[in-house]
Amino acid sequence: MVDLLKQEMNKKNRIIFGCMALFLFIVTILMAIIGKDTKTLDGLKLMNSFGGVTTLIETLITIIVATRFAGVDSNKQVRENIANHHSKRSIFFAKLIASIIAYLLLLVVAVIAILIMKYLIFTDMPLAGRLSLELQWAVLGNMAYTLIFETFVMLVIGFCKTWYSAIAFGIACTYITEIIAGIFMIFIYVHRELIYNPFNFFFVEKQIQDGMKHMMTRLTMNQIVAGSILYALIFFVLAYIIFVYVRHFPTDEELVAKREAKKQKKQKIQNA
């Protein structure tokens, strides 16, 4: 497991992650400065909206998860590790742990940047009390959404063959889940049992930030938080089963044989 984690946190991945963290830090600071100048942000909104960078954090961790669990480089690494007698189970959990560490570090970077901005330009309210509570709720909301969304991405991302298609599809899942949730919402008012469909719980972060969103989801705060955790566990178990027992990672010989077979089939069609 230690060797697998070292692979996931190799020099190339550390450099890419460092650039992501720096980009997040700069954007968080710029969002606060622009918000202050345009009067669209104050200390309370800064905390409540998590600095306005929740979408960026979720995009960055989606890129990390997508490239960890799908794409040519990831599949090649899995094949090599299997050849070196590592189990699919240990490979899966190494990728999972590396993704969790990356997310927590991004979260810390964002919190540090928000606190710096609070003390530099949003000095009208003390951090203790309501501001601190709003920041805690914002972090909780981001964690709850990331948990359910990224386990969903892990579940559906396996079919992507290249790193760029994995990233594109992973990011697209944000809009896909919202569209499906919107379709369900059309029928929620007539069929109340549909409030428990999994896509309704993807609004967990928005409802934690704005309690009035319960008018849209028709779920209480306790229901949406508990439900998002439950569905995340279901997605996680399914993602684990698919990765370990369903997905096939062909060897180099099998890939060469497959290419040759396609080449021969193409030649036969041309000669026919």
Structure description:
With 272 residues, the protein is an all-alpha fold. It has helices at 2-8, 11-38, 43-48, 54-69, 72-83, 88-120, 130-156, 163-188, 204-209, 214-217, 221-246, 252-271. The chain contains twelve helices and no strands. Helix 7 (130-156) packs parallel to helix 11 (221-246). It has one domain. It is globular, with a radius of gyration of 22 Å. The mean pLDDT is 86.
Major sheet attributes? none
Which structural class fits the helix and strand makeup? mainly alpha
Which of globular, elongated, flat, extended, rod-shaped describes the shape? Answer: globular
What proportion of the residues form beta strands (DSSP E)? Answer: under 5%
- Average of per-residue pLDDT values: 86
**Share of helix, binned:** over 70%
What's the SSE blueprint?
Blueprint: H1 2-8, H2 11-38, H3 43-48, H4 54-69, H5 72-83, H6 88-120, H7 130-156, H8 163-188, H9 204-209, H10 214-217, H11 221-246, H12 252-271
At a glance:
The chain has helices at 2-8, 11-38, 43-48, 54-69, 72-83, 88-120, 130-156, 163-188, 204-209, 214-217, 221-246, 252-271.
